[in-house]
């Protein structure tokens, strides 16, 4: 990408440890000029849950102008991202909830974003992770 | 109270809702324990309490603005799936009410129905899945059938409570409870139970203001 801007990636999980560890793994496997990947897990007061503030902060932290891909585990993590997107002014533009498995999708997204791909390509790579059969 | 519902009425509703949720928080969490993650009561209690605190600092001018503001507070403070779901319900209702100073019953009923459809879409659920929708839609049908708030609100409260009870024999198809399959049968859905409290609060707020 001409400006060197990379798509940012936010991983939303009910558990801050899951989100942060998956982000660390994705960064490690992301390659040379690793794109920013951060976790936004757990409830606002700590513990299991989802925090819209943490998600919004993380999205702004990884945004460099090329867009932000958000991956979520389930339930309130998915619904909170969807409602933040519906608010219209809470997340950087463009931001997208990507329909992908959290860990595998994060790695695919990180590798693709690190190569300088745009948000469409990053989202497509993460979604393709569903096609990777293990047996 | 006149037949037009003003900002004061909606503020009374949210206060009555917070009181009802405080009273029933332990029960909601108990309902959530065998099938969910045992946080529904405490999550909603935190959210509706935060709404009261925020409204004390930033009172809102119109019913629409009040519900928009409340919806955003719920999304940011509840911390479970019920935050975005109830947040969307109130925000969409508020948006539909626009900047009117007071709202007649049919307009409120129509705004709530549009919002309920948005909630159904957000959660990917339909009536019969053992969710809040199973209390919500019967309540909205009762609002549509009512001629005035004085009879429509108590009827909606009854319909929502019956709708919540009707989730007991249903198999959950959304959320954590859906992973339990047939084992989810025999439990009242906590979201349907809390929806019934919101409509109980609607009747309470109107009754006290009348």
What is the correct CATH architecture of chain A?
A: 3-Layer(aba) Sandwich
CATH class of chain B: Mainly Alpha
Using the coordinates shown, work out and report the CATH topology of chain A.
Answer: Rossmann fold
Secondary-structure element order of chain B, N to C: EHHHHEHHHH
Question: What does the overall shape of chain B look like?
Answer: globular
Architecture (CATH level 2) name of chain B: Alpha Horseshoe
Helix coverage percent of chain A: 40-55%
Integer-rounded radius of gyration of chain B: 16 Å
Unreliable runs of chain B, pLDDT <50, ≥5 residues? none
Describe this structure in words.
The complex is a heterodimer of chains A (135) and B (210). Chain A has 135 residues and is α/β, with parallel strands linked by helices. Chain A has one domain (14-131): Phosphotransferase system, mannose-type IIA component (Rossmann fold). Chain A is 45% helix and 12% strand. In chain A, strands 2-1-3-4 form a 4-stranded parallel beta sheet, sandwiched between helices. In chain A, strand 3, helix 3 and strand 4 (95-97) form a beta-alpha-beta unit. The longest helix of chain A is centred in the first third of the chain and has 15 residues, at 16-30. Chain B has 210 residues and is an all-alpha fold. Chain B has a single domain, classed as DhaL domain (Serine Threonine Protein Phosphatase 5, Tetratricopeptide repeat, Alpha Horseshoe). Chain B is built from 8 helices and 2 strands, in the order βααααβαααα. In chain B, strands 1-2 form a two-stranded antiparallel sheet. In chain B, helix 1 runs antiparallel to helix 2 (40-57), helix 1 (7-35) packs antiparallel against helix 8 (190-209) and helix 6 runs parallel beside helix 8 (190-209). Chain B starts with a strand and ends with a helix. At the A-B interface, helix 3 of A face helix 3 and helix 4 of B.
